[in-house]
Amino acid sequence: MNTTDENHPPALDTSPAAILKMREFLARVVRTAPAAIKITGNPETDENTDLLTANVDPEDKADGVLYASLCKLTAMEIDSILAGHTPGDLLPDGQPDLERGALMFSQFVGNPPNLYP
Amino acid sequence: MNVAESSVPLPKEPRHQRFADLVLIGKPLVDAYLEAGFKCSRATANANAKKLRKRADVEAYIRAIQSKAADDSTLSVNEILRYCARVVRTPITKLDPRNPEDENGDLIKSYSINETETGSSFRIEKQDPFKAIDTHLTLSGHNPEADAMAGLVSALTLLSSKSTTLPTDRM
Lengths: 117, 171
Known about the structure:
The structure holds two protein chains of two kinds.
Chain A: H1 16-31, H2 58-62, E1 66-68, H3 72-83, H4 98-109
Helix pairs in contact in A: 1-3, 3-4
Chain B: H1 14-24, H2 29-35, H3 42-54, H4 56-70, H5 77-89, E1 108-116, E2 119-126, H6 129-139, H7 144-162
Antiparallel strand pairs in B: 1-2
Helix pairs in contact in B: 1-2, 1-4, 2-3, 5-6
């Protein structure tokens, strides 16, 4: 995903390959239980930490205090827009609104937590 | 995030990928070829587009996108509907965040565990059942707000046809 300054919105990649990658990520968000997120202290052996919300304190995570994954229902909503499953979200020509879905995806993912600063 | 990692073999030449992307969204070959940035006459484009479509890396890319879009690496409508129904029907007492094998573990939004000398306690937040209902209705073709408004209009229309004056809240 490209990023630019605040005055110029990022150019979102809505190619089929990019949309497919977004949808695969969203499927992982929905299917993965928070208990399957493993913080081991070593990025090589961590599991599913890319599904954590950004506001997680690494110290707390290491102690197992809080496990919060990205919101699954929001992930479903974005996936439905990208896949064109929601009739009310289709463009007038009947195609999925990929620009809107990709924008929502980039906002949804945001900045992943920095577990090993 | 793993979004940058691709399991799809990308064509090496960016214009070839652009061409394949346009073909994937249903553009005719010749239009896809010209829109991908190749400068030539339409007749030349027609011939070159057919050759490009048969290139091994372009063919592999198109085939991979088409097959993966249809496999279980993405969510289907039925899967989303089933998930939403489970969010509504599963009581929070059935969720155990300490058990990675818990079949309902995917319904947990967040949890925290407090370990003390005398034992441990945990706090769970489940996915929001009201939002799940909303998602379910939307995907089922219902629009809760529009449905409510339509019901109101229907009731007012019926009421006005029965009486010349609408009731008010003042006597």
